[in-house]
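Q: Hi! First time asking for a complex rather than a single chain. Here are the components, and I think there are two in total. Is that enough to go on?
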Amino acid sequence: MKYVDEYRDPELARSLSRRIAERVDPDRHYKVMEVCGGHTHSIYRYGVHDYLPESIELVHGPGCPVCVIPMGRIDDGAAIAEADDNVILACFGDLIRVPGGNGSFLDAKARGADIRIVYSPLDALRIARENPDRQVVFYAIGFETTAPSTALTLQRAKADGTTNFSVFCNHVTIIPAMKAILDSPDLRLDAFIGPGHVSTVIGCRPYEWVPREWNMPVVVAGFEPVDLLESVAMIVDQLADGRTEVENQYRRIVPWDGNPAALRCIADTMELRPWFEWRGLGSIAQSALQLSSRYEDFDAELRYDVPGIRVADPKACQCGEVLKGVLKPWECKVFGTACTPETPIGTCMVSSEGACAAYYNYGKYARQRVELKVKA
Amino acid sequence: MTPRPTSSVDSCHDEVCITCGDVAVALAVVSVDGDTARCRDEAGRFETVAIELVGPVRPGDRVLVHAGVALLQLHDET
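A: Yes, that's all I need. Here is the structure of the assembled complex.
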């Protein structure tokens, strides 16, 4: 991709690091939350922490859609897949190992359920067309970046009269989650790094309530290390100047008004749910999407007997605190011991965008490097 | 994490699952057939992409793709 080299330039990164260090208030501690799991992954992968002064703490938010899926919804998907032999459940790859109360989709597959990994909901629709005698259910997850692909698939299915395709909708929306984080008494933040590709769909305007109501900067950022450092520099500049506003660091990609065609497509096919349970954040009003009445014929929740049982997280798992930014991954009591990417207990260790998996995959090596350096 | 094969049916791209998270990739349009474009990434892998949500695209254009759907047409000046 064009610009990648420029946005990984070590000299540029060092220059931004100096700029940040010059502008921070030495007597102040800054808590900056990146709400997006893709940002969390990049921060650990590139060691962005190492370029920041100690007074800036990056807090990881609930922006990994796999991580916020509650266990009960996994059980619901498995129940649909095992409803009868005629069902094919299609889902994204990261979802297949997420533990539910009754095991993961991989366990359901081992029990005989026909569960297939797809790259796009359009692939699930194609499977339905290729298997007219089977019922294909797409298990939809994701924020506003992914919702357009599900919405477009529904429009195509309706247009060509496909009747053996339905969607189990778990799409969530980022703004209510940010509101829940700010309303939580557990955490006091100074700024948000706004999600990059969610904002290609929703634009930057939906964040304007944050500076207005909370007097807090939001900087929409790209995913390269220089993007992230520049976004932190922009946040520090705002706070040093006494400004709080929404800024767009990722201007080369994100239009200020998002993608109106994608938003229309979502509005045609989906509507807000009254409530949705988020792992770690609890039930949040109007924070997720369900199929609109125009598309009820494609709604798997109406087509199948979904248990809908709320399942408590395992006692040892502290994903909820990690997702709220209250705990760092390594502060969880099972991190790296009972809970690893190979045998995850919590969702944050399953997805590569989960804070625990990202830290396990990259942070550990950094610690080893430091230890080796000391020994030498 | 398994790299995405040339067939569009598999899970992930590079080290992160692009379908699950807030990750999208820039692809070059190779050919257009109605609402669908055949696109290629920098590694030479091909992908079929739905283009209804972006304006008309032509071979040579670049689009930002997530889960098989183009979310944005990329311009050099942006």
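A: Chain A is about 40% helix and 15% strand. Let me know if you'd like any chain examined more closely.
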